[in-house]
Design goal:
The chain is an all-alpha fold and 121 residues long. It has helices at 2-26, 32-56, 60-83, 87-106. Helix content is 78%, strand content 0%. The longest helix has 25 residues, at 2-26.
Length: 121
């Protein structure tokens, strides 16, 4: 599960970087829609970093915050797929569902062989 979680984090980051690269192509000038479009990329990028921390750091609060963030991202991208029914939006919904599932089962906190952060203090 850890390997699948790592691959889903990588796919999240690829979506984010692709979104960042596509921003100046989709929006020729710096305006409000361009900034909102770019902020979606930052959301995906920060979600990827949060999930990476959840992968390597065994902490209960981090596990819960990451699970909540992934769940909210699944809800938001599901609504987005209904509003903007394009293939990349639908693919993002499935990628976020996998990220949620693998985050719950493949994180450092969910593996019993890993010591908890509180054990080191």
């Amino acid at each position: 599960m850890k390997r699948l979680y790592k691959y889903s984090i990588i796919s999240q980051m690829v979506f984010a970087i692709g979104h960042i690269i596509y921003t100046p192509i989709a929006h020729a000038s710096l305006n409000e829609p361009a900034v909102w479009f770019f902020s979606g990329a930052l959301t995906l990028l920060l979600s990827g970093f949060l999930n990476y921390m959840n992968l390597v750091i065994p902490d209960r609060i981090l596990y819960r915050v990451t699970a909540l963030a992934n769940f909210l991202l699944v809800l938001f991208t599901s609504v987005l797929a209904f509003v903007v029914p394009e293939p990349q939006c639908i693919a993002l919904v499935f990628a976020n569902i996998l990220l949620l599932i693998f985050g719950l089962t493949g994180s450092a906190f969910s593996r019993p062989e890993v010591k908890r952060f509180s054990d080191f203090q």
